[in-house]
Design brief:
341 residues; alpha+beta; D-amino Acid Aminotransferase, Chain A, domain 1; D-amino Acid Aminotransferase, Chain A, domain 2; 8-stranded mixed β-sheet; 17 strands; binds pyridoxal-5'-phosphate; binds 2-OXO-4-methylpentanoic acid
Length: 341
């Protein structure tokens, strides 16, 4: 199949309209059977739940072309079940997990020419999402919903690819202690827009959010979980009820333990101990693993020994192993790779 003529190796992380997307509608208590459409636009009533009370959640995963020429996705079952958690917390109907996976498959297949070739450095980002679509003016859940999936070819999330980032400790919170930080609600990202614009204006790539209750513990950034490596080679990742349970982070913890023979700890991480770590990285579907070279905490610089030129050595091993599994160069644990084509 002839691929689109794109400059695959120089793509950024942006939206590009592709040929096809999936849509299913929930009405009278049931999802319809769903279909692929070429129409990228949605026309909704002005009072739709999504517009008035932000009743929307989403997911993010990627399709990869493997070394042997297949198109695969990575652990889509975990995205499907996380979307169930998001839907329940937002009083939305659950889109069945097996249907979620089928919808992803159909959308990727219908856009096969848009899947970046192996070795190009680009991947196909897949965005499933759901929203309340009928008018609601009293504060209550909608009765009707739309579930959709679109795809867009993407390059690195952060400009500069694998160059270490400088981030800062934020004075804003992205999630409340018993709020919605642990689900993928659109409202969490709306909350983060003002702080991210300010951070970018001041030259930082991202914000490090702290736990909103005590402001002493590391949570996550606007779009990725944290990984730290201690000076004696332990992978440490923050534990909190208000961060998104990243599929990349969960996978990396397994990779560290079972492929790299590292000790792994998921525990509360105090901001005051961050200066003692050897390496720091951000992980997520979009971020993959993006190294952090420096964290600025209100004028105090925390500089990791791995420096500002290259990924730290452990971060690099984790990166190579994870992307090796995703691209079919390294044998994956059972069930991680979902073949589409
Ligand atoms: N944290 C936040 C706030 C995110 O938006 C994402 C992206 O999905 C992640 C973490 C990483 O999660 P995952 O690895 O499942 O993509
Ligand atoms: C993802 O990694 O899929 C996300 O949703 C993060 C977002 C900031 C692009």
């Amino acid at each position: 199949m002839e691929k689109k003529q794109l400059d695959w190796s120089n793509l950024g992380f942006g939206y590009m309209q592709t040929d096809a997307r999936y849509v299913s509608t929930f009405k009278n208590g049931a999802w319809d059977e769903g279909h692929i459409t070429d129409d990228p636009n949605i026309t909704l009533n002005e009072c739709a739940g999504v517009f008035q009370y932000a009743q929307t959640c989403f997911e993010g995963l990627k399709a990869y072309t493997t070394e042997d020429g297949h198109i695969v996705t990575f652990r889509p079952d975990l995205n499907a079940s996380r979307m169930v958690d998001s839907a329940k917390r937002l009083e939305m109907p659950v889109f069945p997990e097996e249907r979620f996976i089928k919808a992803v498959e159909e959308t990727v297949k219908a856009n096969e020419t848009w899947v970046p070739p192996y070795g190009s450095g680009a991947t196909l980002y897949i965005r499933p999402y759901m929203m309340g679509i009928n008018p609601v003016i009293g504060v209550k859940p909608a009765d009707e919903y739309m579930f959709r999936v679109f795809v867009t070819p993407v390059g690195p999330y952060f400009k500069g690819g694998a160059k270490p980032l400088t981030i800062r400790v934020s004075d804003f919170d992205r999630a409340a202690p018993c709020g919605t930080g642990n689900i993928k609600a659109g409202l969490n990202y709306a909350m983060s827009l003002y702080p991210i614009v300010k951070a970018h204006e001041e030259g930082y790539a991202e914000n490090m959010y702290l736990d909103p209750a005590t402001r002493t513990k590391v949570e996550e950034t606007g779009g990725a979980n944290f990984l730290f490596v201690t000076k004696d080679n332990v992978l440490v990742t923050p534990k909190s009820n208000s961060i998104l349970p990243s599929i990349t982070r969960r996978s990396l913890m397994y990779v560290a333990e079972h492929y790299l023979n590292m000790k792994v700890e998921q525990r509360e991480v105090l901001l005051s101990e961050v200066k003692d770590f050897a390496e720091c990285g951000l992980c997520g579907t979009a971020a993959v693993i993006s190294p952090v070279g420096k964290i600025v905490d209100h004028g105090t610089e925390i500089c990791f020994p791995s420096g500002m030129d290259e990924m730290g050595p452990v971060t690099k091993k984790l990166y190579d192993c994870l992307t090796g599994i995703q691209m079919g160069r390294i044998e994956a644990p059972e069930g991680w790779i979902h073949k589409i084509v």
